[in-house]
Amino acid sequence: MNEIHVRLADWQKDNAELRRIRETVFIAEQAVPPELEWDAEDAEALHFLAYEGDYAIGTARLLPDGHIGRVSVLRDWRGLKVGDALIRAVIAEAEKRGLQQQMLSAQVHATAFYERLGFEIVSGEYLDAGIPHVDMVRHSASP
């Protein structure tokens, strides 16, 4: 396996890769309706792409208020620390921009993953697109 690297993506320029990953993970695998997957926030969000070599294998986005979302890694690369690299890159960028609190809506099965990265559950369980979720928050260490 080649080294995994993460970079900031451009919603316009990298749109095909961002859509390929999210459509595969959310729409095809998890049956999220397309009208729930794509929203107006994509245009204002910071997007991230994870690569193995020159092949995009994961993505995430950061909204201006510190919400992290649309975290997705293609099936063949799950369990290989791609998600860790993605979330660490998003947190670093959020902190660079002065966002001392990061929030996300996590699928319940992924809560332990996010807890390892410093997030805490702050809500009860609820359904989003028919999938059980909880809200999670992470506070950056004060400078």
From TrEMBL:
Keyword set for this entry?
Acyltransferase, Transferase
Q: Where is the N-acetyltransferase domain?
A: 4-138
Q: Quote one Gene Ontology molecular function term.
A: acyltransferase activity
Q: What EC number(s) is this enzyme filed under?
A: 2.3.1.-
Query: Gene3D superfamilies from the entry?
Result: 3.40.630.30
Task: Give the protein's recorded name.
Answer: GNAT family N-acetyltransferase
